[in-house]
Design a protein that fits this description.
The complex is a heterodimer of chains A (about 800) and B (about 375). With about 800 residues, chain A is α+β, with helices and mostly antiparallel strands. Chain A is built from 21 helices and 39 strands. Chain A folds into six domains: about 70 residues, Phenylalanyl-tRNA Synthetase, Chain B, domain 1; about 110 residues, Nucleic acid-binding proteins (OB fold (Dihydrolipoamide Acetyltransferase, E2P)), CATH 2.40.50; about 190 residues, 3-Layer(bba) Sandwich (Phenylalanyl-tRNA Synthetase, Chain B, domain 3), CATH 3.50.40; about 70 residues, Phenylalanyl-tRNA Synthetase, Chain B, domain 1, CATH 3.30.56; about 210 residues, BirA Bifunctional Protein, domain 2 (2-Layer Sandwich), CATH 3.30.930.10; about 90 residues, Alpha-Beta Plaits (2-Layer Sandwich), CATH 3.30.70. Chain A is elongated, with a radius of gyration of 42 Å. With about 375 residues, chain B is an alpha+beta fold. The chains are: A alpha+beta (about 800), B alpha+beta (about 375).
Chain lengths: ~800, ~375
């Protein structure tokens, strides 16, 4: 809603406030002023002049030399380039010394040898919003009505000495979609009176011949019609046009402008019909018929349906109720007899129709939020008053008013105690009563059960107030939020804390950050094809990515089932920006469902994903290189699992050549006690090529699964008192044998005295057979209560050797 | 008097000029002086003089052998001691010790000097360019949105809140209806949503977590939670809009919870997050799930209230929406609004991060440009 400051002055006394001060007060009490626009874009020294003579410029075909009367003794000679300048026009004249928007100063000048003492201005040159002007007013100089006062300051005449307050209204405050509504609000803030417009009507015509039938009584509660004869359709006076334009409405003609003017004043949409197009002066408010066609004022043919509310006569549709009038009954130049509609349509019906037809007129906006039924008659009379005044029409006697239902004002109660408890205040009853009276709410106040009960009859203009809490809000905002004390919640206290899982998540993050990875956050909505290129964890399930019903783009149209796709996208983005060493991780939900048509929420799992490529230690002068490989990532994961207190013995890395998008020979599932909780490995070289990445390694875990095995309690063991004994073994085995098997053999054969098994060398090369590898272990034994004897160690190592030999392992030393 | 296998040379005793004199007697010289004494004196002087000019460890060692070694000069002189009388002997003995000590001391100090010099030379050789860069240690970073969330969590945990979470894909029922937004509510226009089916959508706010938490508590108080999480709205991405963003809402329900408690809680948050001198300002607003509703402004973090471009000269920046929980919301969640009251608030994490760090484009949070992420490396 755009509110003209000058116009608002007619309804409430704000002479002691600047537009800025008014805006601040409104904003602080609940009506946000989003902007204040000065209509004067920097115009001074422009007056209204009269073109007394116009001659062609002696040396230029397109220029005119005018003698202009600006109400001073001498005529000004002005050279004008506009083709539409003519003798006998009233025009805005920028005199010598005038300033136009953009700090354009008017000086005495010569144009092709002829002296010019000023400039005749166009609408644009005056900084007017020329989009709201008619085509002929947009081109050339601005021609003003004949009655414009000679010598008058043009900014005053054009209503430019004004500010427009742009209100950002919340959906509940549609009462402020009218000048009167804003006036009520300002009056309440300032404790002043609302001044009402003149609604007096001299019914100087014959009896009102209208007949109104409301058929659709669910959608239309009231229909009031006034009738006029002998109207003259012409341009509305400048002051009215100025106000409409300030509100962003294009002036059309005097009668249509009045309907819009009253719409702005009262928030009550009105419509005027050319009465001679309405058969039998008979208005029928009915629902549309399936396929019914109606050409609206904008010359579009609209197809209605059985839920569209239509204003009709007995033979044809005249208007889409509340949305737009029909072209057939438009007020045009030459219209003499007029029917004026002021009605109450329900918000629901208009919202639906406006949505169906894709139209949002000024009227729609107000209907959708609900108008105040008590203003139906007031607005009709106000419009009649203005139409009579501006068009010279005779007003027929009486209003034909068919009312099928009346929206009654509601009463709402609240106690002083509740107000004070809710706000944390200590107000007394008089403060509250004063606020209600400033709002002009009818109040009944009585002492009850040790407190004061306020019963308020809420005016129908404030349809947003239905609960005691709504009244508390009115009190709070007018009392002022700054005046409410500052406290902290008392009473029952609970201990603030994170859950176990939340703590573990933080730990995972901190661990990976400490290890040098950057945390990423990416979109949950992805392109289905990109998503399909990589694997989640539950490949055995027939998962279907959940699609949006109406995505904004295919790029973000399905919910992710894995994190790898996002991470690969991030890697590509960075590689394209010349960053080649990358190490990322992300914690994020994936959405798992097997349903084709979702009828229950998808399963959401918290995944941890990561991606590493390039060098893990960045290029340095020392020549230390650490290109990321499988074991870099595995090491990271081992350290993470160990940090989570997951027993390394229960973790198995199982080669998996089937993971989608992964290198078949460099990918391992991570299993704990036989259950797959994640995987890690290299991207498939084809994927790397497709996404233009170098060797890239990823990992992905189901954190919820992982956390089940987590144990962050540190078991303390006494430090050993007795020395350990270390034995090194070098074993030669088939290259294909996983070393995990060897370690398992060693562990099983070693028994309880084993402290640790460390693999310290793997050799494949010329010194042994080409299908073999040499693997070296350092094995530590220790007894907690005594020093181990040589014989014991010999026994154990014999066992180990035996077990290894049995398994076909050859001992090198 | 005996001569135990000495060579003739040994009978020469160098004088302080280095000249050698021949002596007939081992104990007395030509002038009748006690010969040993003179020899000792002369030897000492000679040794000290020699040592004075030593520069190398090797030479020092040789001199040590020459003067003090088993076959050295001092030993040689001592051999002559047998000829001394019993009363001369202790005198001479003492003198011998003095000479030995003097020479030893000089050798030791010379030794130190040489070692020191060697060490210095070694250190000079070992000197490196300390201005060369160190071996890079990979340092990761926490995503700025996570940082803000953790910071907020810690602030509110300090105020006795728990952190509640819920699904990102939600039922319309929890996302809207339980929050007093029935199907045809005009305020639903305010948030265009990503629907999957008519009943299932991507949550547009984290408020459904509040509804779910209250239902789970089955009417028990107090409820004191914050709900951080991802939310989705049908917005085209640009510098200030993102179809996915992060929110944190808070909810307190209990007996006599008031608007002043809301004010105090938010002031505490603002001061911990943005500085101890921060101020907040409440403005009336509208949300379907709170009544009264307010928007909360923070004193502009750029100009500290002076007025600047960022705050449009007002000195204030809007940072969150809040209000007293709507009685219908309490009712639907199983609480009696006659007995309990509550407040709720919600803020955009991106907005907080943008204000706190001065980030200009919301899309940076989701493109994960390493050059962006790396900047958040301080704790």
């Amino acid at each position: 809603m755009k509110v003209s400051y000058q116009w608002l002055k007619e309804y409430v006394d704000i002479n002691d406030l600047t537009p800025q001060e008014l805006a601040e007060k409104l904003t602080r009490s609940g009506i946000e002023v989003e902007g204040i626009e000065s209509l004067n874009a920097g115009v001074t020294g422009v007056v209204i002049g009269y073109v007394q003579e116009r001659e062609k410029h002696p040396d230029a075909d397109r220029l005119s030399v005018c003698k202009v009367d600006v109400g001073k003794e001498e005529l000004l000679q002005i050279v004008c380039g506009a083709p539409n300048v003519a003798q006998g026009q009233k025009v805005p004249v920028a005199m010598i010394g005038a300033v136009l928007p953009g700090d354009f100063k008017i000086k005495k000048s010569k144009l092709r040898g002829v002296e010019s003492q000023g400039m005749i201005c166009s609408a644009k040159e005056l900084g007017l919003n020329d989009k709201l002007l008619s085509k002929d007013q947009q081109e050339g100089i601005l021609i003003l009505p004949e009655d414009a006062e000679l010598g008058m300051d043009a900014t005053e005449y054009l209503g430019l000495d004004d500010h427009v307050l742009e209100l950002g209204l919340t959906p509940n405050r549609s009462d402020c979609l009218s000048m009167l509504g804003v006036a009520y609000e300002v009056a309440a803030i300032l404790g002043r009176e609302v001044i009402f417009p003149d609604t007096s009507v001299e019914e100087n015509g014959d009896a009102n011949p209208l007949k109104v039938d409301i058929v659709a009584t669910e959608d239309c509660y009231q229909y009031a019609g006034r009738h006029f004869t002998g109207a003259t359709i012409k341009s509305a006076p400048q002051w009215m046009k100025n106000r409409l334009m300030a509100a962003g409405i294009r002036p059309i003609n005097n009668v249509v402008d009045v309907t819009n003017y009253v719409l702005l004043e009262y928030g009550q949409p009105l419509h005027a019909f050319d009465a001679k197009e309405v058969a039998d002066h008979h208005i029928v408010v009915r629902l549309g018929q399936e396929g019914e066609k109606l050409t609206t004022l904008d010359d579009q043919e609209r197809t209605l349906d059985e839920e569209t509310l239509v204003i009709a006569d007995p033979t044809k549709g005249l208007a889409v109720a509340g949305v737009m009038g029909g072209a057939n009954s438009e007020i045009v130049s030459g219209t003499e007899e007029i029917i004026l509609e002021s009605a109450y349509f329900t918000p629901k019906t208009i919202r639906r129709t406006a949505k169906m037809l894709g139209m949002r007129t000024e009227g729609c906006v107000r209907w959708e939020k609900g108008v105040d039924q008590t203003r139906v008659r007031q607005a009709a009379d106000r419009a009649a008053h203005l139409i009579q005044k501006l068009s010279g029409a005779k007003v027929s006697k009486g209003v034909v008013d068919t009312t099928v239902k009346v929206v009654e004002p509601v009463t709402v109660s609240v106690t002083l105690e509740k107000i004070n408890i809710h706000l944390g205040t200590d107000m007394d009853a008089s403060i509250v009563a004063d606020i209600f009276s400033r709002l002009q709410f009818e109040l009944d106040q009585k002492e009850e059960a040790g407190t004061v009960l306020f019963t308020v009859t809420v005016p129908t203009r404030r349809g947003d107030i239905t609960l005691s809490e709504d009244l508390i809000e009115e009190v709070a905002r007018l009392f002022g939020y700054d005046n409410i004390p500052t406290t902290l919640p008392g009473g029952e206290v609970i201990q603030g804390s994170l859950t176990r899982e939340q703590k573990l998540r933080r730990m995972v993050r901190n661990h990976l950050i400490g290890a040098g990875l950057h945390e990423t956050v990416s979109y949950g909505l992805l392109h289905p094809d990109k998503l399909a290129k990589f694997s989640g964890l539950q490949d055995d399930r027939n998962l279907r990515p959940v699609p949006l019903a109406m995505p904004l783009s295919e790029e973000h149209s399905v919910l992710r089932t894995n994190l790898i796709t996002s991470l690969v996208g991030t890697a590509m983005y960075n590689k394209n920006r010349q960053t080649h060493d990358l190490a990322f991780f992300e914690l994020g939900q994936v959405f798992l469902s097997e349903q084709e048509q979702l009828n229950e929420l998808p399963e959401e799992r918290l995944y941890l994903g990561g991606l590493l490529t390039g060098n893990f230690i960045s290029v340095n002068w020392m020549g230390v290189k650490a290109p990321v490989d499988f074991y870099t990532v595995k090491g990271l994961m081992e350290s993470l699992l160990s940090r989570l207190g997951i027993n390394q013995q229960s973790v198995q890395y199982v080669a998996n050549s089937e993971r989608k998008g992964m290198h078949p020979g460099r990918t391992a599932d991570v299993q704990i006690d036989g259950k797959t909780v994640g995987f890690l490995g290299q991207l498939h070289p084809q994927s790397e090529k497709e996404f233009d990445l170098d060797e890239t390694f990823v990992f992905q875990f189901d954190l919820e699964e992982l956390f089940q095995y987590a144990n962050t309690f540190n078991d303390y063991k006494l430090l050993p008192k007795y020395p350990a004994i270390t034995r090194d073994f070098a074993l030669v085995v088939d290259r294909s044998m996983p070393v995990a098997k060897l370690e398992k053999l060693i562990r099983e054969a070693s028994g309880e005295l084993l402290e640790s098994v460390t693999l310290f060398d793997v050799y494949m090369g010329d010194r042994i057979a080409s299908d073999k590898k040499s693997v070296a272990y350092s094995i530590v034994y220790r007894h907690a209560e005594r020093t181990l004897q040589d014989e014991e160690i010999q026994q154990i190592t014999a066992k180990v050797i035996e077990a290894l030999t049995e398994a076909g392992v050859e001992l090198r030393s | 008097m005996s001569n135990q296998g000495g060579t003739a040379d040994k009978y020469f005793v160098p004088d302080f000029m280095g000249r050698k004199f021949f002596c007939f007697s081992l104990t007395k010289d030509c002038k009748g002086e006690i010969v040993v004494q003179t020899r000792l004196q002369q030897m000492k002087e000679h040794a000290l003089d020699k040592l004075k000019h030593v520069a190398e460890a090797q030479e020092l060692q040789e001199l040590r052998v020459k003067f003090l070694g088993k076959k050295g000069e001092l030993t040689e002189i001592l051999r002559g001691m047998g000829a001394l009388s019993a009363e001369e002997r202790p005198k001479i003995g003492q003198l011998v010790n003095e000479v030995r000590e003097a020479i030893e001391e000089t050798i030791a100090s010379k030794q130190n000097e040489i070692e020191k010099r060697i060490l210095e030379a070694k250190l000079a050789k070992q000197t490196i360019d300390v201005t060369l860069p160190g071996l890079p240690v990979a340092t990761g970073t926490m995503h700025p949105l996570t940082r803000i969330i953790e910071e907020l969590e810690d602030i509110f945990i300090g105020l006795g809140f728990e952190v509640a979470e819920g699904p990102e894909v939600e039922l319309d029922h929890y996302n809207f209806e339980m929050l007093n937004l029935p199907k045809d509510h005009p305020a639903r226009d305010m948030q265009d949503s990503f629907y999957i089916t008519e009943e299932i959508l991507l949550r547009t706010q984290t408020s459904p977590v509040q509804a779910r938490t209250m239902l789970k508590k089955e009417g028990k108080t107090p409820v004191k939670i914050i709900c951080p999480g991802k939310v989705y709205r049908r917005d085209d991405d640009d510098a200030t809009h993102s179809h996915q963003f992060t929110q944190m809402e808070g909810l307190v329900v209990g007996k006599n919870i008031s608007m002043s408690d809301l004010k105090g809680t938010l002031l505490t948050f603002a001061r911990q997050m943005f500085g101890e001198d921060q101020q907040i300002r409440l403005r009336p607003s509208f949300f379907p799930f709170t009544e009264p509703s307010v928007e909360v402004d923070l004193q502009c973090v750029i100009c500290h209230g002076e007025g600047c471009r960022v705050c449009k000269q007002t000195g204030w920046i809007e940072i969150l929406g809040a209000g007293m929980v709507h009685p219908r919301v309490l009712e639907m969640a199983g609480y009696n609004p006659q007995e309990v009251s509550g407040f709720a608030f919600g803020m955009g994490i991106e907005r907080i991060a943008m204000l706190k760090y001065g980030v200009e484009d919301i899309r940076h949070f989701y493109t994960n440009d390493v050059r962006f992420l790396r900047q958040f490396n301080r704790s």
